[in-house]
UniProtKB/TrEMBL annotation:
Family that this chain belongs to: Belongs to the CMC4 family.
InterPro entries: CMC4, Cys_alpha_HP_mot_SF
Keywords: Disulfide bond, Mitochondrion, Repeat
Pfam families: CMC4
Name listed for the protein in its UniProt record: Cx9C motif-containing protein 4, mitochondrial
Subcellular location: Mitochondrion intermembrane space
């Protein structure tokens, strides 16, 4: 793929998630704000560029739609289940 440019839209948000995860022992529930910021950035990216647009930092359009729907229902995918309480 010589000459093809890699789209890194939302890279700052994706990197912020990685930094947060590393700082918090990979506990996703501590990084919900960063995850939401990435999804918001990616949503705007697809709204401006169409659902077939590609960024290496964003989930594919259909997966992003699913993630946004899940997050509207509450913090489903970024919560850890507490045990032995």
């Amino acid at each position: 793929m010589a000459g093809q440019q890699i789209n890194e839209t939302c890279k700052a948000q994706a990197c912020a998630i990685q930094d947060c995860l590393q700082s918090n022992g990979y506990n996703e529930s501590k990084c919900t704000k960063q995850i939401d910021k990435l999804y918001k950035c990616c949503k705007q990216f697809y709204e401006e560029n169409g659902k077939d647009a590609k960024s290496v930092c964003c989930p594919k359009f259909n997966l992003l739609q699913l993630k946004l729907q899940q997050r509207e229902l509450g913090p489903i995918d970024a919560q850890l289940i507490e045990r032995n309480r």
